[in-house]
Specification:
The protein is α/β, with parallel strands linked by helices. It has one domain (2-225): Vaccinia Virus protein VP39 (Rossmann fold), CATH 3.40.50. The chain is 35% helix and 29% strand. It has helices spanning 10-18, 35-42, 101-111, 128-133, 140-157, 175-184, 193-196, 199-212; strands spanning 2-7, 25-29, 46-51, 57-62, 65-71, 84-90, 112-123, 160-168, 218-225. It starts with a strand and ends with a strand.
């Protein structure tokens, strides 16, 4: 059974799935600039973000919790075993290279405490945002590989607690706003600025805007494991 959360933010979806995070040690894997981790820290979590592309940042106070950023690949997390209560992959598991997926999931199991939980949120290949982005960034193969690796690993090492869905609401005032957002994300993805602003993408954006207005929503599927 899938619990539908409707339209909500990434942090609200996570809190609906796992409950309060105050006092939890959280590993945010593939965290980017750490926006999600800082929101969780403001709610009392002690968050360590791991990302291979970002510069490290020292631990700092954020609300009643703390946040820090460590440069590390998902399959080579530094630090001791059994040190986290909660591990997150939010729109990041499918960015792990296929040859590193098994190692990344084994690392998650290593760093989680015995009663720890794994939260994985992945975009679903449907909806208006997907319809535009697939022209220059088709993640079908990467997402399928991530899902297969997760299912195989979870069946051995975890219990699937819950499956949830929600809609990540995305608003773009026009094509230039959309293109700027996509170009800012290029460091995490394998496309070029030229591909983003191609005429075919502009046409599909205009077509979608005529149908959906400024709303380009992205459906999301969540698996929560213990």
């Amino acid at each position: 059974m899938i619990d539908d959360l409707g339209c909500c933010s990434h942090v609200d979806a996570l809190l609906a799935a796992v409950g309060p995070v105050a006092g939890l040690a959280v590993a945010d894997i593939g965290c980017g600039d750490g926006a999600l981790g800082r929101e969780l820290a403001a709610r009392g979590a002690f968050v360590t973000g791991f990302d291979p592309f970002m510069a490290p940042a020292a631990r700092m106070a954020a609300g009643t919790g703390t946040w820090q950023l460590v440069r590390a690949a998902a399959d080579k997390l530094p630090g001791p075993s059994a040190s986290f209560d909660l591990a997150l992959f939010v729109f990041s598991l499918h960015h792990v290279p296929q040859e590193q997926l098994a190692g990344a999931l084994a690392e998650v199991r290593r760093v989680l405490r015995r009663d720890g939980r794994l939260y994985v949120a992945e975009p679903v290949a449907e909806g208006p945002h997907q319809y535009i982005v697939e022209l220059f960034h088709d993640e079908t193969e990467a997402r399928a590989a991530a899902a297969a690796a997760l299912a195989g690993h979870a069946a051995t090492h975890f219990v699937n607690q819950r499956v949830l869905s929600y809609v990540d609401v995305r608003r773009y005032a026009g094509f230039d706003t959309f293109a700027a957002r996509m170009i800012a994300n290029m460091r995490f993805n394998g496309y070029s600025e030229e591909a983003v602003v191609a005429p075919a993408v502009r046409r599909r954006f205009a077509e979608t805007a005529a149908r959906c207005g400024d709303s380009f929503d992205q459906p999301v599927r969540v698996h929560l494991y213990r």
